[in-house]
Amino acid sequence: MSRLVMKFGGTSVADLERIRRVARLVAAEVEAGHQVAVVVSAMAGKTNELVAWTDGAGAAAQGIEASDDEYDVVVASGEQVTAGLLAMTLRNMGVRAQSWLGWQVPIIADDAHGKARIDEIPPEKLAAALDDGQVAVIAGFQGVTRDGRIATLGRGGSDTSAVAVAAALGAACDIYTDVDGVYTTDPRIEAKARKLAKISYEEMLEMASLGAKVLQTRSVELAMAYHVPVRVLSSFVEPGEAPGQGTIVCDEEEIVEKRIVSGVAYSRDEAKISLFGLPDHPGVSSTIFGALADANVNVDMIVQSHARTADTANMEFTVGRRDAQRAVEIIRAVQPQVGFEDVRVDEDVAKVSVIGVGMRSHAGVAKSMFKALADKGVNIQVISTSEIKISVLIDAAYTELAVRALHAAYGLDQL
């Protein structure tokens, strides 16, 4: 008997009627002969409400340890409510079910409260429950530290919970969400966006990290590392509707026809920091980016060029918009040590990327990208590349125009 992990996000369990639909989908898989574990998120909007409460409670007094662990106790409670309600609903339908919290599984995580990473999931208890014919309804987003404290996995952590549970159980993983699969780009921007039948782990990882909101980045990393078959599909269907729906995330070798470009992603959560008059000698970049790394500020695109003054350089790089002001403060703090002339920040930018495993074996991908943007009058500020993606930083006002132009340039509306 095959095992299946089903994951349902916040919009899928937003009220009791949607929880009943989820229960019908779960019951259909049980009826089909699967051993089923279900991972659930908090009801839509609930986590934001809980976070607001923790903000309202305020910070710990001076000399008292920070309340990050208690923050996790509060914000993890949303998933507990959903797990209990779904288990009750399944029982009302005649399906044997039991709720499981992170500490009961246990999902063992490190102690980085608010952004913990899963260390391991001993599968014995869950496997025994499934073998006994129970549906295990697991509260996503939460784990337990080795000293017994609740730790949450960060935004989108229920995706990570689901894939990690699937890896521990040797199961496939179906992630139900408010879209019916992975699209070539955001359908809200480009009406001609097409749903992909399959996408490789690497492409999905790039799309997730570059702005696509379908799957959380860490969940894709886990799926790729443990070869967990993942399917993304809509929870707004009844059992038996739309057979063969969704997008399968899988190894590249399982995709017969490899597209040159599979998708266009964008992110408006970007800020560009420009440094002028940097001394052009070894150790300068190490000092700047070392200070940012020590403060957990993630840096993405980096470009350095010679300045007009001899032995000096200018540098531009991007950070998340929420980190922009903090990054500037950190850089100003090392200014006496480094000796640059000025620093400026521009938050009116966006990153647009094209992704595809076919780039490895095809020339001219960058040429097509730059021509498509030039034809629409879109100026490129910064460029970064990897083996399967090209990203450009542009003025935020041109985001939607750029996405549509690139989608057409690579024929993604023809898939």
Number of helices: 13
Major sheet characteristics: 8 strands, mixed
> Helix coverage percent of residues?
25-40%
* Derived structural class: alpha/beta
Record the strand order, biggest sheet: 3-6-2-1-9-11-12-10
Poorly predicted runs of 5 or more residues: none
- What's the total count of β strands? 18
Percent strand: 25-35%
Principal-axes geometry comes out as: globular
Give a structural overview.
- This protein is α/β, with parallel strands linked by helices and 415 residues long.
- The strands form four sheets. The protein has an eight-stranded mixed sheet, sandwiched between helices. A six-stranded antiparallel sheet has the order 14-15-13-16-18-17. Strands 4-5 form a two-stranded antiparallel ribbon.
- A hairpin with a 2-residue loop joins strand 17 and strand 18.
- The radius of gyration is 23 Å and the shape is globular.
- The chain starts with a strand and ends in a 6-residue tail after the last helix.
- 43% of the residues are buried.
- The model has no long low-confidence stretch (mean pLDDT 91).
